[in-house]
């Protein structure tokens, strides 16, 4: 139902509601003001009636068991005509986004007294939980990050061939022990395998680490070392540095993935193929690290238990020593007392014999 005709006769031209204080000048003006007041009262009653009817119809559709009067009594009817003093700002500040909005875009929480705009309400903030949202935080998603890795862990070393040729006129490369010596600070390296084909060394070597969480962490550390010094995978793929000004060959390296191992096996025709498995990072590294931590805690607990037992044994041994000394001292005193009793008994017997002789 359209209600606009009810307000056609009320014109507001100066941007704010008319003042209710006025000066009486004539009897005609009194009659006009009286009619104006009656018309305002009539319009207010009409507006309240329309709102009541609309709310009653909405409630009757959603909750058939409730009466219209109950729905109307629970609804808080706001005044249809808001009176604002001249010069008063119509903007209010939202307590959530802190932006100033028009009063018709502002919602007030009656229980907490907080004010927020309709935009924040559409983003998930309701009038009842506006205060709670301001005291909650969002962290990382509870997603289990996992990826496939080569097992045992390996690190590819590139530019390991030189320009020299051996006695068979084939391209030579770095020796296994020389390569191991260059990375002697990484204890988890088990062996080295070189890539050879019919022309000699292919310039590609593989450092194979032990198949453990420690081995993977060591391989990852070496990969990071290459990357930090600017000789990692990205540099090798874009613009590798082959020769230094000192006429030394610059090695590049990176963690091996499945494609790298397959490429190594493709290049290397003179050596046995590298055997590897594709395993889960969570299963082979994360879970084992957790198990290592649990084992370490268990070892620490056992060490503490053994230390407590040793201290307890030392206390018992000390206590036994004290008791042994006390026992020996008591035995000595008993022996002395026994000797005294024997001597006294002999003296007594001699006195008895002498008395009988007399």
UniProtKB/TrEMBL annotation:
Pfam families in alphabetical order: XS (PF03468)
Entries under Gene3D superfamilies matching the protein: XS domain
One of the GO biological process terms: regulatory ncRNA-mediated gene silencing
Superkingdom in the source lineage: Eukaryota
Domain XS: 146-261
Name listed for the protein in its UniProt record: XS domain-containing protein
Native species: Populus trichocarpa (Western balsam poplar)
Classification lineage: Eukaryota, Viridiplantae, Streptophyta, Embryophyta, Tracheophyta
């Amino acid at each position: 139902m359209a209600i606009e005709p009810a307000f056609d006769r009320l014109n507001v031209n100066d941007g704010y509601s008319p003042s209710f204080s006025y000066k009486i000048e004539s009897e005609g003006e009194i009659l006009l003001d009286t009619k104006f007041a009656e018309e305002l009262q009539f319009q207010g009653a009409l507006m309240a009636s329309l709102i009541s009817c609309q709310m009653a119809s909405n409630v009757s559709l959603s909750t058939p068991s409730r009466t219209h009067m109950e729905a109307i009594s629970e609804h808080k009817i706001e005044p249809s005509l808001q009176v604002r003093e001249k010069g008063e700002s119509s903007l209010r500040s939202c307590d959530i986004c802190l932006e100033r909005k028009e009063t018709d875009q502002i919602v007030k929480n009656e229980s907490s007294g907080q004010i927020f705009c309709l935009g924040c309400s559409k983003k998930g903030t309701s009038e009842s939980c506006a205060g709670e949202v301001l005291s909650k935080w969002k962290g990382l998603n509870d997603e289990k990050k996992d990826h496939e890795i080569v097992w045992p862990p390996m690190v590819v070393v590139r530019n390991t061939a030189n320009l020299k040729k051996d006695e068979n006129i084939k391209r030579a490369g770095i020796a296994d022990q020389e390569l191991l010596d260059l990375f002697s600070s990484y204890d988890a390296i088990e062996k080295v395998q070189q890539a050879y084909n019919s022309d000699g060394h292919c310039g590609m070597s593989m450092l194979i680490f032990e198949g453990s969480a420690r081995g993977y962490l060591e391989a990852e550390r070496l990969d990071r070392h290459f990357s930090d010094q600017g000789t990692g995978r990205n540099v090798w793929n874009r613009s590798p540095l082959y020769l230094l000004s000192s006429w030394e060959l610059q090695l590049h390296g990176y963690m091996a993935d499945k494609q790298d191992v397959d490429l190594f096996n493709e290049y290397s025709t003179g050596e046995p193929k590298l055997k590897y498995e594709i395993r889960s990072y969570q299963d082979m590294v994360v879970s084992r690290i957790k198990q290592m931590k649990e084992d370490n805690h268990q070892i620490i607990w056992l060490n503490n238990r053994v230390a407590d037992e040793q201290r307890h044994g030392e206390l018992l041994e000390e206590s036994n020593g004290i008791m042994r000394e006390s026992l020996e001292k008591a035995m000595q005193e008993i022996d002395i007392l026994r000797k005294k009793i024997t001597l006294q008994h002999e003296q007594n017997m001699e006195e008895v014999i002498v008395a009988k002789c007399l």
